[in-house]
């Protein structure tokens, strides 16, 4: 039977990388977004608004996916609103797809806020789990839009009889423009500004993150994991962590990233220096840099998300993610994290997104 994929959020870091891999492996692949991705060869764009059920019904009327990959979300001012909006997006999508009864598997991408708490209580006292983080950890006793999204998938699966998988990456590193959580590109843009201005590449985060062990998720690893879980019988109806498979300390990697860009690194000095403050006045400067080097994107906010990078790098505990569950079931993809960053920086330069 032909495998027909619907990638929801195909313009983002996860969705774009997943779509490319699905197409390379011979899947018929549709990419749904409010602004469809038209840069991926072979991807069939679908324009729709997940908050508008009628728009979904029109857009998906003739599309009968066997596998649905939900890789998108929408940030709101409060967690209550995050829950309302993001659960509605999933519910609308699965309600509309229910009519054709074509869906065999739904994969949902969430993240480590499942363990660390939502934005309003992120990694704060009372919400600090034991690390390494394991899938067996119970839900926190606090509202969390990831839980609401999961519950929508579970309810639809029970109604329609499809299988499901939940994927919890750490910080996803990969190429995308206009993404709400984009540490890799944020650091690349910050380093490029430091090189242009002579500023130091200053560590923005906490002592715990600087000195502790950490891990991240290459978008290509996440793509492989999504396909693996959706096509492996033993992985059905389960939640999985997914990271590169190695660990690192920012105290070493920060200096290596600085060396890539030829800038001077400044490590943890006893204080947190949030990137949101460091880059607060850089929008006009980035326009000048973009014009000088003929870059394709001169809007700093489309590339850099310092608020999210601060959230990750400012945590008061080291954060590592256990991958034993996936390994035991046969997922063996591994990626060197330092190379993940270098590959991204090379991609951004080749795409004329950074100098």
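-> sequence recovered:
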């Amino acid at each position: 039977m032909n495998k027909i994929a619907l990638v929801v959020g195909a313009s983002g870091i996860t969705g774009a990388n997943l779509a490319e891999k699905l197409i390379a492996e011979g899947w018929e692949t549709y990419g749904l977004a409010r602004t469809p991705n038209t840069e991926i060869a072979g991807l069939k764009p679908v324009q729709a608004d997940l908050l508008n059920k009628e728009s979904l019904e029109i857009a998906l009327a003739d599309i009968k996916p066997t596998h649905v990959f939900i890789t998108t979300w929408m940030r709101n001012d409060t967690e209550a609103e995050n829950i309302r909006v993001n659960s509605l997006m999933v519910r609308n999508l699965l309600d509309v797809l229910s009519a054709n009864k074509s869906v065999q598997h739904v994969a949902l991408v969430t993240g480590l806020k499942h363990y660390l708490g939502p934005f309003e209580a992120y990694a704060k006292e009372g919400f600090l789990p034991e690390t390494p983080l394991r899938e067996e950890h119970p839900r926190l006793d606090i509202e969390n839009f990831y839980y609401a999204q999961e519950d929508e998938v579970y309810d639809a699966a029970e109604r329609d009889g499809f299988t499901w998988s939940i994927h919890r990456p750490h910080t996803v590193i990969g190429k995308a423009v206009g993404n709400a959580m984009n540490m890799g590109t944020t650091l690349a843009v910050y380093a490029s500004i430091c090189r242009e201005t002579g500023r130091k590449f200053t560590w923005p985060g906490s002592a715990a993150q600087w000195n502790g062990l950490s891990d991240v998720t290459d978008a290509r690893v996440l793509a492989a994991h999504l396909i693996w879980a959706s096509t492996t019988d033993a992985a059905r109806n389960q939640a999985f962590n997914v990271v590169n498979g190695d660990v690192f300390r920012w105290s070493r990697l920060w200096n290596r990233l600085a060396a890539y860009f030829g800038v001077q690194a400044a490590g943890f000095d006893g204080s947190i220096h949030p990137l949101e403050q460091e880059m607060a006045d850089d929008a006009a400067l980035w326009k000048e840099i973009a014009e000088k080097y003929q870059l394709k994107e001169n809007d700093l906010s489309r590339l850099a998300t310092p608020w999210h990078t601060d959230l990750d790098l400012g945590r008061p505990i080291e954060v590592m993610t256990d991958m034993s569950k996936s390994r035991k079931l046969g997922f063996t993809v591994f990626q060197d994290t330092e190379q993940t960053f270098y590959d991204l920086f090379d991609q951004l330069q080749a795409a004329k997104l950074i100098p």
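The chain has two domains: 4-169, 175-215+247-318+335-351.
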